Amino acid sequence: SEKMAFEKIKVANPVVEMDGDEMTRVLWKSIKDKLIFPFLELDIKYFDLGLPNRDATDDKVTIESVEDTLKYNVAIKCATITPDEARMREFNLKHMWKSPNGPIRNILNGTFHLYHNRATDTVIKGPGKLKLVFGANTCDVQKEKMKGQSWRFSTLLVLEAWLCPCTTLMSLRLQILLWNVEVTFYPSHLLIVDLMLIPFLKRFKHTFQEVYETNWKSKFEATGIWYEHRLIDDMIAYALTSEGGYVWTCKNCDGDMQSDFLAQGFGPLGLMTSVLMCPDGKTVEAEAAHGTVTRHYRVHQKGGETSTNSIASVFAWSRGLAHGLYWSRGVWEDDQGSCTYNPWTQGQYLNTEEFIDAVVSELRAKLGCSA
């Protein structure tokens, strides 16, 4: 191969790579081959989180990848399949594995699960009595009766219980979050559903407010920004009519939904990035915010041409590696081009590989190296 006109950039710290599934796996390999390996001297700790390998290893590969993430402090993750009944049949799986994001976030104690909560699922097949019990470690803890502390049921029942440890760790997480807000110099809005119904969220809102008032209010005011809490209906209405310029803080499920609707207003989900910041302040997991693009993968499997947006996957790498990556304003994909050219024709957009090649050309120009 032609000798490059520059010396590869040396990355001292190893990086954990979590490979994924379907079309994003195809993109992932192309990005590594064209954008990563030619430019970086990098030690990659590779883990295959593709569904076949997760099934073959009884999902131990996911746990091993997170353990290495804690060791090396940086993980870059490709999109993965969360199987349903159809996927069980398609891949002949031994078990309906849950999303790898669950154990990844739980082990890393990431801010996606801001309250340090955990979920346990079980199915009850007959009538009975359900109790929620608290066992005190010391005798001086006053016993408090809880309304609805037991439930009798004869039909299908759904119970959700939330555990919120209001500890120094929670305050630390809030400080990390608010520090990020301060750096952006944007005002901050905390979105929570109706607090009159959920004491758990009410307590979180009060803790957030307390940390802000104690440690951050004067710093915010000095830079001309502020923090305020808004209920979900009010915040969504505000977001729809605003021009942006603020940081919107949500709990996990709200953020999952609202980020999608917000991103879709500006273009495809392929333009949205996702970074998991851990409470230690130094461990990060970067990933694309979209799925495995199954529809395009089916075309790819048949040998057809695809035009899949690779920007989010590229930025997963660039965020994880702390390198900026810029792409030419003159380069389009069919989902971007269709906003301008409708209907579009070939020649007005780039296919999957052509787009990555265009990013490579732009990167070479930025680095001042030969083609």
Automatic annotation (TrEMBL):
Keyword Magnesium: yes
Keywords of the record: Magnesium, Manganese, Metal-binding, Oxidoreductase, Tricarboxylic acid cycle
Gene Ontology biological process: isocitrate metabolic process; NADP+ metabolic process; tricarboxylic acid cycle
Positions annotated to bind Mn(2+): 233, 256
Pfam families named in the record: Iso_dh
Cofactors (names): Mn(2+); Mg(2+)
Residue span(s) of domain Isopropylmalate dehydrogenase-like: 14-359
UniProt superkingdom: Eukaryota
Cofactor mode of binding and number, as noted: Binds 1 Mg(2+) or Mn(2+) ion per subunit.
InterPro entries the UniProt entry points to: Isocitrate_DH_NADP, IsoPropMal-DH-like_dom
GO molecular function annotations of the record: isocitrate dehydrogenase (NADP+) activity; metal ion binding
Keyword Oxidoreductase (UniProt): yes
GO CC entries: mitochondrion
Family: Belongs to the isocitrate and isopropylmalate dehydrogenases family.
PANTHER family recorded: ISOCITRATE DEHYDROGENASE [NADP], MITOCHONDRIAL, NADP-SPECIFIC ISOCITRATE DEHYDROGENASE
Full protein name: Isopropylmalate dehydrogenase-like domain-containing protein
